[in-house]
Amino acid sequence: MVEPEKPVKFKGKDQIALDEELARKLEAEMQAELVEEERIERQREEEANLISWDDTQAMMEANFELA
């Protein structure tokens, strides 16, 4: 039978240093996620603009043919 690992307990400065390191890692991960979400949103906006332009272009061509 394998026993689960017990978390190592640190005291004082060691715990503070570990907490700070964890906080930096979490902040970096959150920042990376935010950057990725912003990139995806910009991409969606660009795609929506292209679709809108395609619709506008199609209407202009249809109006030209009717004239």
Features:
mainly alpha; rod-shaped
Helix content: over 70%
Structural class: mainly alpha
Cα shape = rod-shaped
Number of domains as seen in the coordinates: 1
Number of contiguous helices: 1
Most strands sheet: none
Tell how many strands the DSSP assignment holds.
Answer: 0
If you average the pLDDT, what whole number results?
Answer: 85
Can you offer a commentary on this structure?
The chain has one helix and no strands. The protein is mainly alpha-helical. The protein has one domain. The chain starts with 12 loop residues before the first helix and ends with a helix.
Summed up:
This protein has 67 residues and is mostly helical.
SSE order and pairing:
Layout: H1 13-66
